[in-house]
Amino acid sequence: MSNTPEDLLKEKLDQLQCHFTWRPQKETIDLVDMMFRLQYSLTWGVKYQAASYNQLAFVNCLQGHFEEAIENLMEAEKILRENHKVEFERRSIITYGNFAWVHYHMGQLTEAQSYLDKLEMICKLLSDGPRYTAMIPEVYGEKGWSSLSSAVEFYEEAKECFAKALEQDPDNTEWIMGYATVLSRLEAFSGTPESRDQSQSVKYFRQVLELDPDDAVAMVLLALKLQRLRQNEEANELVEKALQKTSDLPYVLRCAGKYYRQRGYVKKAIELLKQALELTPHSWFLHHQLGLCCRIKLECLHNPVFQQRAELMNLCKYHFEKSFEHRRRSVVQPQLDFAHICITSGEYSRAEEIYHRLVELMDIRREDMQSICLEAGLFELYQKKSETNAVRLFLKGVKIECNSREREKCHMNLEKWADRKLIINAHDNNALGIKAFLYQLDGIKDKATEYFEKALEFDPGDEEYVNALSQLRS
User: How confident is the model at residue 326 (pLDDT cuts 50, 70, 90)?
Assistant: First the structure.
């Protein structure tokens, strides 16, 4: 094993808690999109700017922009000294860790070691644990924000981090807001434990507003949750109040735009979303919301002239395509929406290209892959007239162990297909096998056994059926 100074230093750096040792890495985040989002958050003066500068330094370093990364970290340190004088040392752990890593990547080993020395002195006073870090709320909290802003597959980790921060510091608005935000996002996925109780995040957003009644972001996020719970009167008051307080903050505008779109006030929604887009022109979220608004207008057309329909169709495609321009791996729904619009306009080859790319994605949320399998399967079934491919995709969706609405729909489509085939031919072993598998999945063992036995009557050599039957009988 090598014992060069560089290798020994690397061993120490790996012990740090900072962006360079957390899970989101170059392969799992969309760097261009993240760069835009971080720059916007800094331009528009959102809270927790030091954390944004820390993450921006990480992104710059991944792209080889070392000098810019150092400048970002110097800015983060400056903000921490100005805004957190008493707790500067606690807050600087991640910034100093990032400093050490950037200097290491620049080949400046002495400078990297100097930051390790600073961390050792700080952590000695804060913890009896690791030599170069201290697992304190400030560390858990910033890791939570970093995970939350990286990609959806890191939301559970973000939730865990904010929970640990709150265990030690239960009245900290920053950690409560983070916990409420990640809960709210997890509640929106149909297959998560959080989705079973949509009101959990409401409790924490209310707690934020009790501690900080002027937090406009908490107001609009709470409004969106109350809207889902059909508490429309309070939701409307919160949105109007938030817009009065900060009518030029892009995040508030975009949430308000989404709120009005979901209420059916499309004209008002488009007005707010366009206002936000002028301030943050590369926002995937805004383009997606505008695409959804255009789709609503398209669906509401009565006896449209060809030109009017074509213009709206093109606007839908433009906004949906812009929304995943820099997030082809991490943003799934806009791509499905784009494919659907292509189907509507008869552009099957473009839709097929989108589905093919999405089906090949790796390491994405299980619910997202189930959505892909469902939509791609329906396309194969109804547009491509390929039952074989459709069944393969529905099966893939069903086999993913996540009890989402999309999985239920894959299950339903398989059942309908199998029933239809068996009406035509009661000896269709593929349809019998599908029915058997679905009964097995539903825990109905006697029916599963019966259908696997029937399938084997007509295809005695099918190993999959033999193995399944063996498991059921054991």
Answer: confident
Identify the domain boundary among 352, 379, 401: 401
Spatial separation of the C-alpha atoms in residues 473 and 462, rounded to whole Å? 17
Q: Is residue 122 part of a domain?
A: yes
Smallest Cα–Cα separation from 283: which of 312, 255, 243? Answer: 255
Q: Where are the alpha helices (DSSP H) in 330-462?
A: 333-344, 348-359, 366-382, 387-399, 405-424, 429-441, 445-458
Give CA–CA dist 96/37, Å, rounded: 23
Q: What is the pLDDT of residues 225-277, one digit of tens each?
A: 999 999 999 999 999 999 999 888 999 999 999 999 999 999 999 999 999 99
The two structure tokens encoding residue 134 = 């201290």
Characterize 167-198 residue by residue with b for buried, 16 or more Cβ atoms within 10 angstroms of its Cβ, and e for exposed: eebeebbbbbbbbbbbbbbbbbbbbbebbeeb
> Residue 208 corresponds to which tokens in the numbers above?
């934020």
12 and 116 Cβ atoms separated by less than 8 Å: yes
Structural domains counted in the chain: 2
d(CA 294, CA 334): 13
pTM confidence score = 0.91
Q: What is the CATH number of the domain that holds 388?
A: 1.25.40
**Which tokens sit at 458?**
């007509």
Q: What percent of the chain has pLDDT over 90?
A: 74
- Assess if residue 269 is contained within a domain: no
pLDDT in tens, 433-470: 999 999 999 999 999 889 888 888 887 877 888 887 87
The one-letter amino acid at 401: E
Domain boundary (350, 378, 401) is at 401
Find the CATH number of the domain harbouring 87.
1.25.40.10
**Segment 78-113, tens digit of pLDDT:** 999 999 888 899 999 999 999 999 999 999 999 999
pLDDT band at 2 (very low <50, low <70, confident <90, very high): low
Domain that holds residue 11: 1-134
CB 102 within 8 A of CB 66: yes
The angle that helices 93-105 and 109-126 make with each other, rounded to 10 degrees, is 160
Evaluate whether residue 4 is within a structural domain.
yes
Token couple for 171: 């009245």
Determine, yes or no, domain membership for 237: no
